[in-house]
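Tokens help. One example:
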Amino acid sequence: MIIPAPDATAFIQGYTQLMVEIHGPVSGKKAPKLLNVLAAARLEYLAKPALLDQAIRRLAAASVTIPDEVVSAIRGLQVRKWAYLRDSRSHSVFIDPSGTVAYGVLGLTERIRDVIGGSGAMVETGLFRYGGRYVTDGIVSEAVCSDPRSSASRTMCLPGSGARGRFMCRPGVVRVSLARHPAGGASANGRAIGGGPNAVK
């Protein structure tokens, strides 16, 4: 449930270079951990997206080129408090805060359950499109172990909700009509349709 190693390496390298450039120099006797720098820079970028283009220009002036696919992925980055429901054989199931869209998500180098130590949690992390899949950046700002199925998953499957529980495993393809399992989980079936307004771009 992780992306191929060469793709992960290319993304991590480009993402790190851009976020460090956005964050700028650090001061103090003790340098902060890289993960904390990346998380802080991610917040800065989300608050002011123009910082990304500025960072790209500064890096280009220093003869550092970031792959276009990495830049596109970062432009579409969505940081939300997702309901991390469970794992299947091929992906982790994330439900967006509105409870109307679920994503089949891959990790970069680790499964999300290995990052937070289990499944069934509300997780604040980044999601983006990369290599034809939905991927998490692995930077977890907050994780609250609970049972997300008790709220978000039920909302997705309420009769007449309009969304009918869109499940997105690959960008541009949406499976409709999520069905409830007796145990409280959800499974996707139905035909493929276009994306929806809450979809990760």
Notes: The CA atoms of residues 56 and 62 lie 10 Å apart. Residues 148-164, 176-198 have pLDDT under 50 and may be disordered.
